[in-house]
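Lab meeting, item 3. Inverse folding demo.
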């Protein structure tokens, strides 16, 4: 009989063979399930792919014969369905619904409409016989309801009306069989009653709405333990189909997940894997909407598991995956997912509780794939979030991103000095920087949180460049904190997190926290008790092994002296002592310079009476840096010395002795090659004039205010020649030797400018008087 199927491709012969097989199947002959399924597959291959009705009418000239041939073919498909039903009813037969479903699956998924229609005819006959047959006992047997529903559902939107109605009839029979198997009454409407909405007279929109209505009926009856079967069956239209069938499959999938999404926790991972498979082979990218919305439904009920599977499965981050994260971000669960991502990012990078080396350093490394995926997901979700939502999550987002940055930069950042010039760090951005994804996301977060005036493209680019390099990371962190302060985004939670980092074993995180507090101390939104506690920690960090942390500690203490002087006074002497010790850190000139700038603020706040003997020690230490090669050291020393001079009223005798040693150096540096140093030197020299023991010092002070550096030097030399020849001779002697009396060599650019020989006549003295006389009238004392 099988040979007849292949040798005589006439529908009438096929019908006779299948009818014979139907009778034969009633005999109690022992065949295996595999053999029966092979027979049914042969029957399907012989009948279902036969030419369509139009082709048969075109080939057969006799119209009456053609019609008979079509009728015979139709009867053959129905007979094949009855054969399957008979095999299910026959007691000795090992075949069951799962085997039959596997045979029909390929043909029901066919892209050829007439093949799919014939498979539906077979299936409709099979399910009708099973529904009405009293001999077929389904109770206690496994019914692949989920797989069949997923297979038949999308076919309710087939191009031909007869196929759509056949699919609805199959689903109607399937519901009745399910009710019979569970010994319950059918609790929904019958899909067969909606066949009118699938007819040729209905438009596409009505057909789609009818299909969705049928989906609502059927999905309520899908056993939740067959959720994975349903999703595996319905993925086929996504992978291979186009047009209306894909749209119908999407609607059925969403309807099913809306119905059972909360109750299918054990199957979530498998369902998401199925959806990921669909994204890899989908022929209609425009229908990715259904996949994204399906993931969203699962995320609403199983947020943590869904997020973890997406990060694990949906990689690399292609266009579809990025849109998936944006879809999650637009939903009401977006804030919750974003918060969970932020916590995950901190966990991925927070291995700092156990130092990676005996010294507690974090070594530079390539970021993990997971940290990069989480960061990119955060960036996409932030882009569609509201300003208020991102601001509320800033205490969670910012630490995680900074943790990843510091981890990627490694230990080089611990010994990269800051620029003492405050904000003059160079752009050291490099191509292919491993920190760029974290910086880019960080800038996205800040752009969302702050007003444009606080974070212009220029500052955003500069900040990103600073943070990406270990040599400028600390400066970038200070700039970041400054922006947060201006935008009023420093919260108590954020301060608490960075306070904890000050005590972390990871020196990298300590540095990040120190940079934060160094800038925060300019305007600390802290309570009095917390300020004192923080000051103690900052003072401790002045002895840290990292030179950058020591420098930040000095900067933080100096800023604190300016912003919270009352609190600083309570520990003033201890802080001064710490900074004095830092002046001996000659191996790190940046630390020395920062310490002198901080001491300048402390001396101004504490005043001489509260410094005790520290005033003399600071003055003696400071003058040793006037001739340093580094211009920032000269500037910092002059800045500190100017504050000492302005505060030395009660230390007049001591400071006069000091100025007697330092005035030559100050005089020469009036024309320092660095403009900032020369400008500071002029201020310092003017403040030191009252301690030089000169006649008419007010006139010299007035000249300092009125003349430029060269003119001032010339005028002073003229004055010394007239009123203090020994001082002029000392000046010449120092210039000739190139060093001071204590043996300290002058800065190379200072003594070379001395070419003045002093006034040699009364006429020169008169010139001096003419230069000084107007200053008394124009520039009153103290102006």
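The presenter then showed the designed sequence:
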């Amino acid at each position: 009989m099988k040979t007849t199927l292949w040798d005589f491709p006439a529908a009438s012969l096929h019908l006779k063979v299948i009818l014979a097989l139907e009778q034969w199947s009633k005999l109690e002959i022992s065949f295996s399930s595999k053999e029966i399924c092979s027979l049914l597959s042969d029957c399907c291959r012989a009948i279902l792919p036969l030419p369509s009705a139009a082709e048969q009418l075109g080939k057969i000239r006799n119209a009456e014969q053609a019609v008979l041939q079509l009728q015979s073919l139709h009867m053959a498909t129905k007979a094949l369905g009855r054969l399957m039903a008979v095999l299910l009813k026959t007691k000795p037969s090992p075949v069951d619904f799962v085997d039959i479903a596997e045979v029909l699956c390929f043909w029901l998924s066919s892209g050829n409409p007439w093949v799919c229609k014939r498979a539906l005819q077979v299936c409709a006959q099979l399910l009708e016989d099973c529904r009405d047959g009293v001999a077929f006992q389904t109770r206690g047997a496994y019914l692949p309801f989920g797989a069949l529903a997923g297979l038949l559902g999308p076919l309710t939107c087939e191009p031909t009306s007869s196929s759509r109605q056949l699919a609805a009839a199959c689903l109607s029979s399937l519901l009745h069989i399910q009710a019979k198997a569970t010994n319950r009454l059918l609790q929904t409407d019958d899909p067969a009653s909606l066949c009118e909405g699938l007819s040729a007279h209905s438009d596409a929109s009505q057909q789609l709405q009818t299909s969705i209505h049928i989906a609502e009926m059927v999905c309520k009856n899908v056993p939740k333990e067959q959720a994975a079967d349903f999703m595996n069956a319905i993925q086929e239209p996504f992978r291979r189909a186009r047009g209306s069938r894909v749209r119908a499959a999407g609607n059925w999938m969403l309807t099913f997940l809306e119905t059972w999404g909360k109750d299918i926790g054990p199957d979530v991972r498998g369902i998401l894997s199925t959806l990921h498979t669909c994204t890899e082979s989908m022929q209609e990218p425009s229908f990715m909407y259904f996949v994204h919305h399906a993931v969203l439904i699962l995320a609403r009920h199983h947020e943590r598991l869904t997020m973890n599977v997406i990060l694990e499965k949906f990689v690399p981050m292609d266009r579809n995956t990025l849109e998936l994260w944006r879809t999650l971000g637009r939903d009401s669960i977006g804030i919750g997912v974003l918060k969970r991502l932020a916590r995950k990012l901190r966990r991925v990078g927070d291995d700092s509780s156990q130092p990676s080396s005996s010294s507690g350093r974090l070594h530079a490394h390539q970021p993990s794939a997971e940290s990069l995926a989480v960061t990119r997901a955060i960036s996409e979700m932030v882009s569609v979030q509201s300003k208020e939502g991102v601001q509320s999550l800033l205490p969670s987002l910012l630490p995680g991103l900074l943790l990843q940055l510091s981890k990627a930069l490694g230990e080089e950042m611990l010994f990269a000095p800051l620029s003492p010039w405050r904000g003059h760090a160079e752009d050291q951005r490099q191509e292919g920087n491993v920190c760029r994804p974290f910086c880019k996301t960080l800038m996205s977060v800040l752009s969302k949180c702050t007003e444009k005036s606080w974070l212009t493209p220029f500052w955003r680019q500069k900040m990103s460049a600073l943070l990406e390099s270990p040599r400028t990371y600390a400066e970038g962190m200070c700039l970041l904190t400054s922006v947060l302060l201006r935008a009023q985004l420093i919260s108590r939670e954020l301060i608490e997190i960075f306070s904890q980092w000050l005590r972390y074993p990871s020196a990298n995180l300590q540095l990040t926290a120190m940079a934060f507090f160094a800038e925060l101390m300019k305007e600390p939104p802290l309570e009095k008790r917390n300020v004192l506690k923080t000051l103690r920690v900052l003072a401790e960090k002045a002895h840290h092994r990292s030179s950058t942390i020591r420098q930040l500690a000095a900067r933080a203490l100096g800023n604190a002296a300016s912003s919270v002087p009352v609190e600083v006074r309570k520990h003033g002497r201890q802080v001064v002592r710490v900074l004095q010790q830092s002046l001996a850190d000659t191996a790190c000139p940046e630390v020395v310079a920062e310490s002198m700038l901080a001491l300048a603020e402390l001396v101004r706040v504490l005043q001489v009476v509260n410094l005790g003997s520290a005033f003399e020690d600071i003055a003696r230490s400071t003058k040793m840096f006037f001739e340093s090669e580094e211009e920032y050291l000269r500037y910092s020393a002059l800045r500190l010395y100017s504050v000492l001079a302005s505060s030395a009223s009660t230390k007049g005798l001591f400071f006069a002795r000091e100025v007697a040693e330092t005035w030559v150096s100050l005089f020469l540096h009036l024309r320092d090659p660095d403009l900032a140093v020369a400008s500071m030197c002029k201020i310092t020299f003017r403040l030191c004039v009252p301690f030089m023991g000169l006649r008419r010092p007010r006139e010299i002070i007035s000249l300092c205010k009125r003349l430029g550096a060269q003119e001032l030097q010339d005028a002073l030399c003229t004055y010394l020649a007239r009123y203090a020849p020994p001082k002029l001779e000392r000046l010449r002697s120092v210039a000739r030797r190139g060093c001071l009396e204590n043996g300290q060599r002058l800065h190379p650019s200072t003594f070379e400018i001395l070419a003045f020989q002093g006034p040699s006549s009364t006429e020169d003295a008169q010139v001096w008087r003419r230069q000084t006389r107007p200053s008394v009238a124009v520039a009153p004392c103290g102006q």
